[in-house]
Fold this sequence. Notes:
The protein has a four-stranded mixed sheet with strand order 2-1-3-4. The longest helix has 32 residues, at 172-203. It is mainly alpha-helical. Helices cover 66% and strands 4% of the residues. The protein contains 15 helices and four strands.
Amino acid sequence: MRLATVFHLGVKELRGLMRDPALIAFIIYAFTVAVYVEAKAVPETLRNAPIAIADEDDSPLSRRIADAFAAPYFKAPVMIAPRDADARLDKGIDTFALDIPPNFQSDLINGKSPSVQVNVDATRMTQAFSGSGYVQSIVTSEVNSFLAAGNATRPANADLVLRARFNPELNQGWFGSVMHVIDSVTMLSIILSGTALIRERERGTLEHLLVMPVKPSEIMAAKVISMGLVVFGATWLSLAFVVQGLLKVPIEGSVALFMAGAVLHLLATTAMGIALAILAGSMPQFGLLLMLVLMPLEILSGATTPRESMPSAIQTIMLAAPNTHFIAMAQAILYRGAGLSVVWPQFLWLAGISTALFTFSLRRFQQSLR
């Protein structure tokens, strides 16, 4: 393989990309606007949920519970009569309606178990799903604190203190922004390398290259390196200016070590894009094939849910996917500040998978040219 030939072919690929404004706009959007939106509009985060409270007890404990519902999770509670709760929920004014019964505080002090009713507007699915747990936790915490204060002479058996190592405020936007950058690396590298090959076929320039003194390995290497370089640069700029600069997300570990792992991951995913483009043959088929490949890769690799919660068979199968190890490596480095002594197994996995995918894609590319 001649490096000069690979360099000139790579420059040709970059020029072809620059003449495609749709792809350029998509790259910019994926690493800027989409990252910001993912951080600021995470749907699992409860924020400014409207709540109404019917306080039929009007005791110090009931007022204490009402005061516990505060920003940023809830709006200031609206005190209502019990008969108004259903009408406000039907009109969509409130998502939660909390009804504290009469004699609630006195029944607790006397050892009884009074019930607090929580009505939830389930049509607001996201707030209803996560907010019910918030309401239960707040009421339980205030009741336990009130009862503990009344038994101050009794020593506590244990005192649990929670400290979050990364993201002490448990802000899901910090997690969402970084993970979106990682997902964009996988998505864009597959798309760019695949479209680069299909573009050559549709325009007929691939046949022009074959009559020149150019090897198939040089053609594929140029596409892999040039498209990987574009995604590599976009990833670094997104981490530096969007994640750390605009969103103020702290990065615990070495960005340089993360980018080194990204190089191995890009080698695997760009080769995967070449293989998918060979299998598809046309741009519409390539787009449909991407839907079947990208969704399982992103969902089952640990980016959306922990791999430990998946069936053992799925965990074993997904070990063959490069982004499974890339996500584990990225989370360890960027979130927990891990060094090479911790993430070297992921580097070895990525190196092996990258070599296997590149070799497989090169053979398929050579066979398609014959």
